[in-house]
Amino acid sequence: MRRFAVATPFSAALVMCCWFIPLAFAQPSPTTPKPGEEPSAHLFSESFDDSQLLKREWYDGDRFTIAEKLPYGGKGCIEYAWKADTTTPASSSGVRHLFEATDTIYLRCYIKLSKGWGWSGRSYHPHLMHFMTTQNEKFAGPAASHLTVYIEPVNGKLRLAAQDIQNKDAPHGLTQGPLKGGYNGQMFDSKEDLFVDDQWHCVEAMFQLNTLDLKADTPNADGIVRGWFDDKLVIDRTDVILRSTDFPEMKFNQFLLTPYFGPGLLPHAQTLWIDELAVGTKRLGPVKAR
Question: Could you tell me the CATH number of the domain that includes residue 185?
């Protein structure tokens, strides 16, 4: 499925680096709860009220346009504006954030598409947000990894997806379907078209890695993929295999915000905005506009 051929506005060299042998790299230090205090479900959040993302543990980006007119909440929101016949937004770059490794990850953000937003005309693209795991290093490209999961709007629907192209030569092989033209992927779409206007909408996603039967050397089909749109559950799968016994220590530890249209797939110049983004180990839920 060629929809996973390129999944990031990073350079080709950066995308290709995901084929390197994974390297260990520093993890963010967990916050130690006080005696009697429950561990926080919150890993990190970003309100995009200013452009100083690199001072707040984001990395691998170099320009950020903050739109101060009509954000969902606070003083601003990040703007991704495409010029005609391009693939990556001209206004803001893609960017990443590490977090404490976890088997279960939740995302909450607000998304607004510009009036007259156009789709790719295909059953894939644009790519928008991803989670990656401890099996790839901190600058690995998401297009070919041991596991990348996707959160994106496609043809009006909310799509959650996964690929594990880099496992093609692993002992237990691929978990996200066979390679087709060099790419693979499993898609989980909402039944209804949801992105049908130019209003702010709350998008939430949840991925939980499946358990493993190490004694039998098999994965259990108990991984979870869920998506919410404006507080309504629109994707709900509890039978997913995301990892094999080749990677018993795999955990999510990296978030990528990387809006991207494949070559020739952008219908016209258009813009999207992201606001009030948060990542945690439990559902964080919608928030009221500030």
Answer: 2.60.120.200
Domain count, the chain: 1
Q: Which two tokens stand for residue 227?
A: 């998506």
Nearest-angstrom CA–CA distance, 61 and 126: 19
> Which amino acid belongs to residue 40?
S
Is 135 inside a domain boundary? yes
CA 197 – CA 99 distance, rounded (Å): 33
Tokens linked to 274: 């992201």
CB 127 within 8 A of CB 8: yes
**282 to 30, 40, 42, 259: CA distances (angstroms):** 16, 9, 8, 25
- Classify residue 50 as exposed, middle or buried by CB count within 10 Å of its CB (0-12, 13-18, 19+): middle
Q: 4 in a domain, yes or no?
A: no
Residue 106 lies inside a defined structural domain of this protein: yes
Range of the domain at 219: 42-280
Burial 258-288 (b: 16+ CB within 10 A, else e): bbbbbeebbeeebbbbbbbbbbbbeebeebe
Instruction: Tell me whether residue 203 is in a domain.
Output: yes
| β-strand pairing of 157-163 with 77-82 | unpaired
CA 162 to chain centre: 10
Q: pLDDT tens digits for 37-96?
A: 455 799 999 999 999 999 999 999 999 999 999 999 999 999 999 999 999 999 999 999
Name the pTM for this structure: 0.88
